[in-house]
Write a structure and sequence with these properties.
Layout: E1 4-6, H1 11-28, E2 40-45, H2 49-52, E3 58-71, E4 74-83, H3 92-103, E5 108-114, H4 136-144, E6 147-164, E7 176-184, E8 187-195, H5 204-213, E9 220-228, H6 232-240, E10 244-254
Parallel strand pairs: 4-5, 8-9
Antiparallel strand pairs: 1-2, 2-3, 3-4, 5-10, 6-9, 6-10, 7-8
């Protein structure tokens, strides 16, 4: 048995990956996208269902993304990895990861882990990990390969008191910029808020956000944004004006590869 490298998934493999991610989401109370859109994939197939006792087509999948960013002069791969809930702890992740390291030498590898939607507020007796909801076996695995907690990304959302139209880039002014675009039928995505250096600390960021909410009436009832947990100023601003964290993504980085 080995991890099979694929650049694209055919229809059958796509369905198998979706099935596996759904099983992991159900077991772990997470909401990973079941439609993985990686640049490449490693699959561990369940070739003998009678022997394994598992109906699933796959034991594990690792999806990789070429980010186009560098750390310490090396390119970075971002990965999501899923092992079937009843087949964990017997080396399928290591199988995929070792194949990845052999095929992509000289890259830093960044692991993406999502916070469970519920059921993660528990204390672990044996390990106090960098992130409370990263389970001991996951943390031990990441530590064993030299991965360290890198950063957290927060998705924050606010429900508006009235529906607005999409301002796009219309609200940019001499103090700064704010950029939005449609996310779904009732949600706008804020993908850029910038206050120019000479106007920092004067409340212009808050006023730009207030201008967004005062924009002309329309169909959008929510605003969604993403912010790094260590961007304390921006995070504090969003919290003060009513944005709530709805999702957290934790990144670990293996700098030893």
């Amino acid at each position: 048995m080995e991890a099979e490298l694929l650049k694209e998934l055919n229809e059958k493999d796509t369905a198998s990956v979706t099935e596996l991610v759904c099983a992991c989401n159900e077991a772990d109370h997470t909401n990973y996208d079941t439609d993985l859109d990686g640049d490449f994939y490693y699959l561990v197939r369940n070739d003998d269902k009678e022997e394994s006792g598992l109906d699933s087509e796959l034991f594990a999948v690792l999806s990789g993304y070429l980010l186009g960013e560098t750390i310490d002069g090396k390119q970075v791969l971002e990965i999501e990895a899923f092992t079937h809930p009843v087949m964990r702890g017997i080396g399928f992740f290591s199988m995929c990861y070792n194949s990845l390291k052999d095929d992509f030498r000289g890259y830093h590898i960044k692991f993406m882990i999502k916070r469970p939607l519920y059921g993660f507020d528990r204390e672990f007796d044996t390990i106090k990990s960098a992130v409370p909801f990263v389970s001991p076996d996951t943390y031990e695995t990441l530590s064993a390969i030299g991965a360290v907690h890198l950063t957290d990304e927060l998705l924050m959302e606010k429900t508006l008191t009235r529906g607005i139209s999409d301002p796009g880039d219309e609200l940019c002014n001499k103090y700064g910029e704010v950029h939005l675009t449609g996310y779904d039928k009732e949600t706008l995505y804020l993908y850029g808020l910038l206050v120019y250096d000479s106007y920092l600390g004067q409340g212009h960021g808050r006023r730009l956000m207030e201008d967004v909410e005062a924009f002309k009436s329309g169909k959008y009832k929510k605003i969604l944004l993403q912010v790094a947990d260590d961007n304390v100023i921006a995070k504090k601003l969003y919290e003060k004006i009513g944005y709530k964290e709805i999702e957290r993504i934790v990144y670990f980085l293996d700098k030893n590869n």
